[in-house]
Amino acid sequence: MQGKHLYEYAVLRVVPRVEREEFVNMGVVICCKKENRLTCRINEDLSKIVALDTHADLEVIENYLRSFFRICLGEEAGSPIAKHDATSRFRWLTANRSSMIQTSRPHVGFTDDLEKELERLYEVLVEA
User: Which H or E run contains 118?
Assistant: First the structure.
């Protein structure tokens, strides 16, 4: 299995009204401990969110998604979490919480190409 990467991934969800527990899959986050790599792809089209909640504050949701992306990439935009290694950031981002931005529980897989796998997961879990 040389060249294969063990990775974990989770689906990024937006829950516009937490009390209703309805969500839209908005992205995928993927982590490879061996490569100390954490990356994500997030859908910028928020129209599905409005379908669930016509009063959703899209500006707030965009800011939350941007923060998620920055933490994922380790950008030090005022977040102490961004300073941690990739696996620690993944654990923090995928921790169970009751908020507008949530993730699925983590899943595992093997791949030869982390970028291609991220794109495949995004197509299957977000764009479908």
Answer: helix 114-122
Dihedral angle sign, alpha carbons of residues 109, 113, 115, 120: negative
Sequence ranges of the domains in the chain = 5-127
Q: Which two structure tokens, joined as six digits, stand for 14?
A: 């937006």
Q: What is the pLDDT of residue 2?
A: 54
Q: Could you please report the per-residue DSSP string of 34-68?
A: TTTEEEEEE----HHHHHH-TT--HHHHHHHHHHH
Which candidate, 113, 119, 123, 124, places its Cα nearest to that of 40? 119
Name the phi and psi angles at 41, rounded to 5: -130, 130
pLDDT in tens, 56-102: 999 999 999 999 999 998 887 767 888 899 999 999 999 988 899 99
Rg of the chain, C-alpha, whole Å: 15
